[in-house]
Amino acid sequence: MSAFTLELTPAHHELVRRTHAFAQDVVRPAAARYDAAEECPWEIVDRAAQEGFYNALFYADLIADPTGLSLPLFLEEMFWGCAGIGLTVVLPALALSALNQAGTPEQVARWAPEMFGEPGDIKLAALAVSEPQGGSDVANLQTRARKDGGDWVLDGDKIWIGNGGIADVTIVNAVVDPELGTKGQAMFVVPKDTPGMEQVRRLRKLGHRASHTAELSFRECRIPADNLLGGEDKLEHKLDKARRGEGKPAALGTFEQTRPMVAAMALGVARASFEYACAYAREREAFGGPILDNQGIAFPLADLAADIDAARLLCWRASWMAANGVPFRLGEGSMSKLKASEVAVRAAEQAVQTCGGWGYVDDLPVEKWYRDAKLYTIFEGTSEIQRLVIGRSLGDPEATATPLHHHLPGDHGGLSRKFGHGSLARARAGETFLRLAKKAPESVLRLGGRLAAPGA
């Protein structure tokens, strides 16, 4: 198990450098054009594939990092460039996460390449969970899957689906046993152009306009039995456990993993807005000097500086916990998304306010970031849902009895336990030294002082 640390590895720094350069040189120059056209940025996705940022093994490698930091580092830099283009680039990773969580190794090997394609032959993937009547209420899914001979047949409606209708592979969450609630659900692979799956309409959005979002319908949509993720034996085993009151929902593991990912996306928008506001406030002069000299400008930016860093630390902690299988006791994944999404909205709003009238027109990028930021308090679970998750955990006396760090894994034995910093042995040694210091010569005191100094 990897220890939680804020020290980035050389590989982390290189990933940040490469991603930031791509975001700055390729993504940002194209952001306004694709936002205005509301088109899928195929050219940019192909460039991402050429740079190694768009393939199944790249995302699998990021997820496999035991520090948990590779994925949030990558996402923050990519979304610093443009949230809409960034979402198009990473949407297949959400579907890949569901495939990895629920699928067999054979299914992963079969479908993962079809989710990304390769440079010159780009493919897309989608994850279809949300429904018109349910939104964040995964327990209220109406899409049904029934077995018919050697096939599964899907019927229902999905909405807010990124890449919906244009994806080569769509992972669909559906109910197979309504009496079991969320535990009676399964996930299915639906290839592009499957009869019965139809794009009802493309949704026009406030922000993230470079990302294609659609409403889908499934009417007698027939797929082979092999397209049930995990296979029928695993499904029957899961349903039997659910009937005994055991197990967890099919989509739950995906949501636990994606909430820190969404937090990192929001941080990219927050940081872009914050950096621009600071730069503008340093250069814009009014009333005899830079407007940053005014407390009315400086103080809100100071609060944002602290809050963005705090949200990033929550994101990194949750990502590390997910990567190392450390249980979320107080909804730590939801904490990261809640704080990062809400600081993104505040940072974008403050950027508009700092730029004044210029911030309200599209001469500057801040109005776009303002539109983009709002999505993070809504998708992958609204802020209200995150608070509900955290609030429900407060009813567990074991979860709230002690701070989280009391339960984090680590080396609880060995010499460091007896002689490490803060140990009783070191405290007693310090007391002995202070008593002897009254009679010791000055040279000995200097030596002892160096040994006792912080960091020794």
Automatic annotation (TrEMBL):
Entry annotated with the keyword tRNA-binding: no
Acyl-CoA oxidase/dehydrogenase middle domain sequence ranges: 126-221
Domain of life: Bacteria
One MF term in the entry's GO annotations: oxidoreductase activity
Keyword annotations: FAD, Flavoprotein, Oxidoreductase
EC top class named in words: oxidoreductase
Cofactors named for this entry: FAD
Residue ranges of domain Acyl-CoA dehydrogenase/oxidase C-terminal in the record: 245-394
Record keyword Acetylation present: no
Acyl-CoA dehydrogenase/oxidase N-terminal domain residues: 9-115
A Pfam short name: Acyl-CoA_dh_M
PANTHER family per UniProt: ACYL-COA DEHYDROGENASE, ISOVALERYL-COA DEHYDROGENASE, MITOCHONDRIAL-RELATED
Family, similarity comment: Belongs to the acyl-CoA dehydrogenase family.
Protein name: Acyl-CoA dehydrogenase family protein
Biological source species: Actinomycetospora rhizophila
